[in-house]
Fold:
Amino acid sequence: MTSRRRDCCAYFSALALGWLAPGFVEATEAKQAPLILVVGDSLSAEYGLARGQGWVALLEQRLKEKKLPQRVMNASISGDTTAGGRARLGALLTQHKPSVVVIELGGNDALRGLPLAASLDNLAAMTRAAKASGAKVLLLGMQVPPNYGASYGREFAGLFERVAKEEKAALLPFLLKGVADRPDAMDWFQPDRIHPLAKAHPLMLDLVWPKLQPLL
Structure:
């Protein structure tokens, strides 16, 4: 073997060893770790909060603290509706292949007065698509303020229960339980009275966690 050829072999061997260094192996393992995909609106997108204060970021921290292998991808967009989530979910499933999909959508449908039947259809379609891809699904339900009327409030809350039952998905009935329904609720919301303050997000995670943990 010529000197030049030996040098080339040594170079590529060293390069290969570099690729297999601990940092590279850890990065590869992280990439292959099971993925939790969160598809939501501003309640999950850290609207009005400093980065890292939202419940999804806190979920990522909890997984690390518990030394669980799952990683989290937050695909939430402020202002998104069930129709918007449905339109973009297919590409997310194909690209990221999550093991769990958390769907937190519907609040903006109510705020915009969109037909409840359409919201139901969109949530059901998203749940079916996620399950067809091999993922488990957790629906995070929402409720509307009393001024929407008791009948509308029951029908809206019932959307999530119906989808969860018919599509056999896990359900958290109300993501803001213990926040929006407390006596001092206004002290837990931003000035718009829609988006919770940072101090509310650990409570939100504590609600999500018992429903999510069995799916991991």
Remarks:
- Residues 1-32 form one domain.
